Input
Amino acid sequence: MTTRSASAPPANRRIRAARWILGITATALALFGGPLDAQMTPPPEFLITAPSSHDFDETLALLKQAIEGQNLMIVEEVNAQQMLRMVGVRTGGMVQVLFFHPRFMKQIIETNRNGGIEPPLKILVMERPDGTVMVRYHDPVHMFAPYEGLDSVAQELKGVVEQVIAAVR
Output
């Protein structure tokens, strides 16, 4: 049995970073205006956007506190605003918070190994030009719907994410 290292070779990291930058750029242009406006369609029903009643920094801090309060681990925090500046796009604050817990991964892998591609969960915190802050995430029920047997873990994750989001409303 071959054991693979968790760290990707430099070329794979560059490809992964480029994909993130492209995804973040498209999101920023859709939210803040730009050449993609004319091509944008309404967001899909599984993409949930909720307003925050706090400023950007407080929203981010409260979300991270709520994630940890749900006994979840913050896997990565991506400063999308900084990445977008690298390609000449100026935005308000924009951070992606990736989070999960091994107990959920265990359930997923034991039930339907194919669903293991979906974690971690992700919340995008965005500051609009008028200073309002929005949070955006994929509905876990929709995310895991294609994978047979993962309905109960998807419902549990949906409840967890809703509790996290409630911390900033």
